[in-house]
Amino acid sequence: MTQGSFISFEGGEGAGKSTQIRRLAERLQTAGHDVVVTREPGGSSGAEAIRELLVNGEADRWSPVTETLLMYAARRDHVERVIRPALAEGKFVLCDRFADSTRAYQGAGGDAPASLIAALEDHVLAGTVPGLTLILDLPAEVGLARAEARGGAARFESKGLPFHERLRAGYLEIARQEPERCVVIGADAALDAVTDAIWAAVAQRLNL
Fold first, then answer.
1. Counting beta carbons within 10 angstroms of the beta carbon of residue 74, is it exposed (0 to 12), middle (13 to 18) or buried (19 or more)?
2. Considering just the CA atoms, what is the radius of gyration of the chain in Å?
3. 101 pairs with which residues across the strands?
4. Which residues contact 151 (CB under 8 A, 6 or more apart)?
5. How far is residue 52's CA from residue 61's CA, in Å, rounded to a whole number?
6. Is the peptide bond before 41 cis (omega within 30 degrees of 0)?
7. Which domains does the chain have, with CATH numbers?
8. pLDDT digit string (tens) for the chain, length 208 residues
9. CA distances from 44 to 13, 51, 135 (A)
10. How far apart are CA 157 and CA 93, in angstroms?
11. Which residues of 119-140 are buried (b: 16+ CB within 10 A; e: fewer)?
12. Burial level of 53, CB count in 10 A (0-12/13-18/19+)?
């Protein structure tokens, strides 16, 4: 059986990832592909339990290092129980956040050591990484305003504008360092324009 395709969606608060993942999943399914849509933190029963610890409470509930360890505990369960089995069955896996979120949120935003994050990526992921990462980019203040209007993960939103500006810069640096994997999509464009840009990137990178 052909190995599936792993696509992650990244970006700050309010970037519109959930809507765009749903649209891409529908298009792929219409084209006859089997699709698994999942998220982080979460995506498996154990990881969803850890998610509750991460997204609720005061902004300073966890230190960046503790957050990183919790994220990777959840991620390991998610990878073992959901992502790897789906890929082995030849499915498309569309994930709302993955390892780059830890680099951006806990690393660039929170100053968790890059060496710790890299070591966890190496040992926990063991080669299970997206073939394509779509980074939905927009100014931090715009994203926070959108997130506040819809309601959401208040703990991360409440970390303040400077934090979100750092994580945006972190995402753009990831894209600069790994252009073969990452595509930056302007998320402040009209909804349909963002959808079209995502499909163009997916079709080109995955030869669809």
1. buried
2. 16
3. none
4. none
5. 12
6. yes
7. 5-206 (3.40.50.300)
8. 567 899 999 999 989 999 999 999 999 999 999 999 999 999 999 999 999 999 888 888 999 999 999 999 999 999 999 999 999 999 999 999 999 999 999 999 999 999 999 999 999 999 999 999 999 999 999 988 888 887 655 788 888 899 999 999 999 999 999 999 999 999 999 999 999 999 999 999 998 8
9. 22, 10, 23
10. 27
11. ebbeebbeebbbbbbbbbbbeb
12. middle
- d(Cα 138, Cα 130) in Å, to the nearest integer? 22
* Gap between the Cα atoms of 118 and 195, Å rounded: 31
CB 34 within 8 A of CB 26: no
Closest to 24 measured CA to CA, from 100, 134, 138, 128? 134
Kindly provide the residue ranges of all beta strands, DSSP E only, lying in the chain, ordered along the sequence. 5-11, 35-39, 92-96, 132-137, 182-186
- Cβ atoms of residues 14 and 164 within 8 Å: no
Q: What residues form DSSP beta bridges with 11?
A: 136
